[in-house]
Amino acid sequence: MRPAITRLRAAAAGLGFAAVLVAGISASASAENAKDAPLASPIYGVTLPHGYRAWELIAPAQEAAPLDELRATLGNPTAIEAYREGKLPFPDGTVLVKLAWKHVPSPEFGPASVPGAATTVQVMVKDARRYAATGGWGFGRFVNGRPVDAAQHETCWGCHQSLVKDHDYVFTRYAP
Amino acid sequence: MRPAITRLRAAAAGLGFAAVLVAGISASASAENAKDAPLASPIYGVTLPHGYRAWELIAPAQEAAPLDELRATLGNPTAIEAYREGKLPFPDGTVLVKLAWKHVPSPEFGPASVPGAATTVQVMVKDARRYAATGGWGFGRFVNGRPVDAAQHETCWGCHQSLVKDHDYVFTRYAP
Predict the structure, then answer these.
(1) Are B10 and B52 in contact (CB under 8 A)?
(2) I need a labelling partner for A136 at 20 to 30 A (CA). Which of A60, B17, B37, B168 fits?
(3) To the nearest whole angstrom, how far is the Cα of B42 from the nearest Cα of chain A?
(4) Across chain B, what does the average pLDDT equal?
C-alpha cells in the first residue's frame, strides 16, 4: 500500500511545511521564511483549520472538465450541527472545507473513478461581523497548503452571492 | 433548506425505522415486525454500525453508468488508524462503510454533480476468525436500511478476491 496518508495536505499546510523548509536550508533563514510565509488567504485572512481532514463529511461532489475533479466537503462540529438542525443562516464559527482531487479511473474496477493527486482545499469561515461585506463569509483557496493569489480570491464572493443566496451562500447540501 | 438530515439513512436503519413502523400500524404488531426484521446481512450477519455517518472520510468515488453514483467511504477509528499507519492486513475490528447516492447535476453550478437520492450502504467488517473463508471480511449491502438478498451477497467476495487481493481485498485508498 502506498503511504498516502503521509502526504496529508494538512501536514503540508502548517508545521510540516516549516519542517521541510528547515530540513532544506539553514535553520535560521528557514525559521524566518516559515514565520513570514503567507499561510492566510489574501483579502480574508482565512487559514487552513487544524485537523480538518478528520471532520465529518457533508457531501461528495464531482466537477466536470476542465477541472475534472472529485471533491468532498467536510464541516467542523458547528457546521454539522447547523446542517443537522437545518439552521440558516449558518452560525458564527461554522467552518466548511472542500477538498479536491483529480478524477482518475480506478486501476482495479472499470466503472469507478477515484481520487488522484490533491488539487485544492477551499475553506469558508462564518463570522458575520468580520466578513459583513461578503455575506458573513471569509474565503480561502489553498494549493499545497499555500493560499492562492488575491485575484483568485476576488472571484469567490461574486459567484457564491449570485448562485446560492437562498442557502446562505453555501453550495453544499448534506448528503443523507 | 430541505431538511435532508432528517432523511439520514442511519436513522432508517435502526430504531428510527422501528419508530416509523410503530407510528404506521398497531404497536404490538409493529414491535414484532421490528424484532423479526432481518437487519443483518445474509451469509455474513453484518449490520449497519451505529453512528457510521459521523465517521471519518477515507475517500470519495464516482461510479459510471449504469449505476451512475457518487460514493464516499468512511471508516471507524480502527480503520482510520490502519490507513494512517499503512497497516496491511487491516486489523480485526476494522469497519468500512461505503455510502452511495445517485449522481445528479447541481441545479446551481453547471460543471458540478452532487448527491441525489441515497441508493446503497455497503459495509465491510474485519474478523479474521469469523470470516476466515472470505479473507477475514464480512460483507453487508443495505438499501433503505435493510440488507439485500443472499444472491447479491454471494457476489461480494469473488469480486474483492479477484481484484484487490494485494490491498487486503479492499478497493478504497485514503485520499490525502
Answers:
(1) yes
(2) A60
(3) 25
(4) 85
Residue A23 grid coordinates = 530540513
Residue B51's contacts (CB-CB under 8 Å, 6 or more residues apart) are: B10
Cα–Cα distance between A60 and B131 in angstroms, integer? 31
Q: Please determine, for the modelled complex, whether the ipTM score is greater than 0.85.
A: no
For B148, the grid coordinates are 439485500
Answer for the pair B119, B100: CB distance below 8 angstroms, yes or no: yes
Q: Which three cell numbers stand for residue B52?
A: 457510521
Burial class (CB in 10 A: 0-12, 13-18, 19+), B114: buried
Q: To probe the interface with B, which of A1, A97, A161 has the most B CB atoms within 10 Å?
A: A1
Q: A-B interface: how many C-beta pairs under 8 angstroms? A: 144
Predicted confidence band at A118 (pLDDT cuts at 50, 70, 90)? very high
Residues 43 to 72 of B: which have CB under 8 A from any A CB?
Answer: 53-54, 56-57, 59-65, 67, 70-72
Q: Residue written as cell 482565512?
A: A46
- State whether residue B11 sits within 8 Å of chain A by CB: no
Q: Is residue B170 within 8 Å of B124, Cβ to Cβ?
A: yes
The x, y and z cell numbers of residue B100, run together, are: 452511495
Is the preceding omega at residue A89 within 30 degrees of 0, hence cis? yes
| B7 and chain A in contact, CB less than 8 A | yes
pLDDT at A5: 44
Rounded Cα distance between B173 and B169, Å, is 11
Pull the grid cell for residue B49: 454500525
In this prediction the pTM is 0.81
Q: How far is CA A134 from CA A77, A162, B104, B109, in A?
A: 23, 12, 29, 19
In residues, how long is chain A? Answer: 176
Angstrom distances, CA of residue B62 to CA of B135, B165, B169 = 26, 21, 19
